Amino acid sequence: MRKWILPEHIEDVLPPEAERVEALRRLLLDHFRGRGYRLVQPPLVEHLDSLLTGTGRDLDLQTFKVVDPLSGRLLGLRADITPQVARIDAHLLNESGITRLCYAGSVLRTTPAATAQTREVVQIGAELFGEPAIAGDEEVVGMLLSSLAAAGVQRLHLDLGHVGVYRALASAAGIAGNGEDTDIFAALRAKDVPTVFELTAKLPAAWRSALTALPTLYGPAQEVLKAASARLPDTPAISNALAALAALARSAQSHVEALHIDLADLRGYHYQNGAIFSVFTAGEPNAIGNGGRYDGIGKVFGRARPATGFTLDLRQLAGVVARSV
């Protein structure tokens, strides 16, 4: 094998793509700064136990590990920047009130994501810490949409979800954290209604009915909210989740071409605990932006904080912009 051949799913970025990606990075960072988000630059490598603390534990299989020749300790090459930014907010800045941070940099993953062709992703994003109210989610979703508009992406489709609905149902039904929960969770994500019905056969009728309804509660926002209010139990947690989704839908409605809600979208379930969102554009099969609420992320670093944010893949976004010209 020739020594200069790169590893599988690792590649050089050549002009003019590199120039498009760099121009987009500058444009978006300026956009973030104009809205009060300060730039941080976490290191590419950290001690593994720090990198995989908190939300980072979900990235274990995606993280390259190496031994530090200076200390003998295991190091990890970051697979996501968000946990690092949370560490900076909680442990280094330690500010009172609301903190707005942004970042841009490469992450390296052991395997390419289903929607990516490369293991090295150029990630850019923004995180809002210290705002527990729906105003924080509205701000972050609004900035994601305005960032894509500033980049020249049009005809945006926003998908909303809320992992708190399933969390509330699983807890009330007494299945949270056991083996049944794992199987039901997988069936819900696949929108496999017959399997959900079978797996919930021994549950009380109210919880069985609600869990079976979840995979069907997706589509235009107002229709789903109306159906969810009629078909799901009227508990405080579920009512609050639906109210949050309604508020987000109202705030984003005028900025998107289509707005949908999917209550069986459990992406990020293991660390996100509130509203989640993805943005699509016409002609592109995959989401071009993702985010959500993940309160308490800083607890493992010494200070629990409300948190919400989003990430973009700069190379993917640059390709979308180029194809839309």
What proportion strand? 15-25%
- DSSP, total strands: 12
CATH topology of the largest domain: BirA Bifunctional Protein, domain 2
Largest sheet: 9 strands, mixed
Q: Please state the second-level CATH architecture of the largest domain.
A: 2-Layer Sandwich
Whole-number mean pLDDT: 92
- Please state the CA-atom Rg, rounded to the nearest Å: 20 Å
**Count of helical regions:** 11
**CATH class descriptor name of the largest domain:** Alpha Beta
The low-confidence parts are none
Q: What share of the residues lie within helices?
A: 25-40%
User: H/E element string?
Assistant: HEEHEEHEEHEHHHHEHHEEEEH
CATH superfamily of the largest domain: Bira Bifunctional Protein, Domain 2
Number of domains: 2
Structure description:
With 325 residues, this protein is an alpha+beta fold. 39% of the residues lie in helices and 21% in strands. It is built from 11 helices and 12 strands. It has a 9-stranded mixed β-sheet with strand order 1-5-6-12-11-10-7-9-8, sandwiched between helices. The longest helix has 18 residues, at 134-151. The two termini are 40 Å apart.
